[in-house]
Amino acid sequence: xMKWLRKKRVLLLLFVGFTAILFLGxxxxxxxxxxxxxxxxxxxxxxxxxxxxxxxxIIRVETNYKTGRESKKGALGxxxxxxxxxxxxxxxxxxxxxxxxxxxxxxSSNIELGTWYLSTLSKQFDGNRIAVIAAYNAxxxxxxxxxxxxxxxxxxxxxxxxxxxxxxxxVQRVIYYYDQYTExxxxx
Length: 188
Description:
By secondary structure, the protein is mainly alpha-helical. The longest helix has 23 residues, at 2-24. The chain has nine helices and no strands. The chain folds into two domains: 1-28; 33-184, Lysozyme (Orthogonal Bundle), CATH 1.10.530.
């Protein structure tokens, strides 16, 4: 009798689960892949002509949308900007409302400067999204040296050839979330 009840319960759960999937479609997956700070990401992505899904994917990999983060190396905020990079970007971008002090605690300031920096990298690497992701992690000079030396050709198909394991893994993770976000969210 107990075996029969367990089987009935399992069948009922399967039925409810499949019905929910049919009813909800893939929208239930957004519970596993949420995008926080959508308005800030959208606004700054528009301003700096960046793909908002790329910005969201980088934030997801860097901090999983948790504010106030500072890495062991000193990277700040949602987008984990290194202090030297942030200082350089603040000087070049001339953003009056953004300061180094605000980058750690203020999501909008951090997203604005991080998106500005991504835009700069995108221009430097002629819009090559994969090279931009790698440069965001390893630094543009390092990525350019890999490209110049023929160690890596900058394509998604050759990510396995990225010389630094940390950067290779980082690029793979960002691409994974980018693919999830673009599949789940029809617009930003």
